[in-house]
Amino acid sequence: DAKTTQPPSMDCAEGRAANLPCNHSTISGNEYVYWYRQIHSQGPQYIIHGLKNNETNEMASLIITEDRKSSTLILPHATLRDTAVYYCIVRPYSGAGSYQLTFGKGTKLSVIP
Amino acid sequence: GAVVSQHPSWVICKSGTSVKIECRSLDFQATTMFWYRQFPKQSLMLMATSNEGSKATYEQGVEKDKFLINHASLTLSTLTVTSAHPEDSSFYICSARDPPKTTGLAPLHFGNGTRLTVT
User: Fold this and answer.
1) What is the pLDDT of residue B102?
2) Which of A91, A94, A108, B23 ranks highest by number of CB atoms within 10 Å?
3) B39-81, pLDDT tens digit by residue?
């Protein structure tokens, strides 16, 4: 069973903020939310992760709802190079499963000029 | 940041031949590496988990005799597709775990993948 659900595709105008939602209603207390992206014909690239607090780094911001059942990845100023498939993944912080990533179908973000 | 290098980036081989794909961690020692396969328009599927100095653990449905994995050093894991057939044509991606410095949640780092085409 999929642990996360994401819209299959989204468009975003270049220079605008891209907000990518993810539902993870069955997330456990020991699971983090990770975001990766995959540009066409490349390996996945780590973006950001969080547990319950909002996080920000040089690439993006991650907003996690208080009940932790959903999150939003925000690319503040999308560029054409941000066109990719974005994967939202939940991952436990301990145990054997903490070192594996299970990829769903992700959201294909198209940044439009 | 940590870098994982995968080689070759693409390869074309004839049916029945074997192909070896290398995955190297360039600036860290990877005790665990993972091999994924991705068919067109599909997501990544984990094939196997490779631990340095021990046998790989294969996911259900993945033939261990067909996809040979060797992780002889802390910086190199290899995947050999034996007796390749056209249905093995896919995008193969490795990832490596950088031993945690402070927590067990160090992000996994991915190689750029190998496009295998079997003719």
Assistant:
1) 45
2) B23
3) 998 999 999 998 888 889 999 999 999 999 998 888 999 999 9
Measured in angstroms, the CA of B57 and the nearest CA of chain A are apart by 12
Strands of A1-113 (E only): list them: 9-13, 18-23, 31-38, 45-50, 55-56, 61-64, 70-75, 84-92, 107-112
Distance CA B109, CA B119 (A): 31
Contact A101 B95 (CB under 8 A): yes
Rounded distance between C-alpha atoms, residue B37 and residue A113, angstroms? 32
d(CA B45, CA B92): 10
The C-alpha R_g of chain B, in whole angstroms, comes to: 14
The CA distance from A85 to the nearest CA of chain B, in Å, is 10
Residue of B nearest to A100 (CA): B34
Nearest CB neighbour to B34, from listed A42, A91, A100: A100
Instruction: Identify the residue whose tokens are 């560029």.
Output: A79
Contact A58/B at CB under 8 A: no
How much is the pLDDT for A56?
A: 96
Local confidence band at A20 (pLDDT 50, 70, 90 cut-offs): very high
How near does any CA of chain B get to the CA of A13, in Å? 24
Residue B113 pLDDT grade (very low, low, confident, very high; cuts 50, 70, 90): very high
Q: Which positions 57-116 of B are in contact with A (Cβ < 8 Å)?
A: 91, 93, 95, 97, 103-105, 107-113, 115
Hey, how many other C-beta atoms are within 10 angstroms of the C-beta on B92?
24
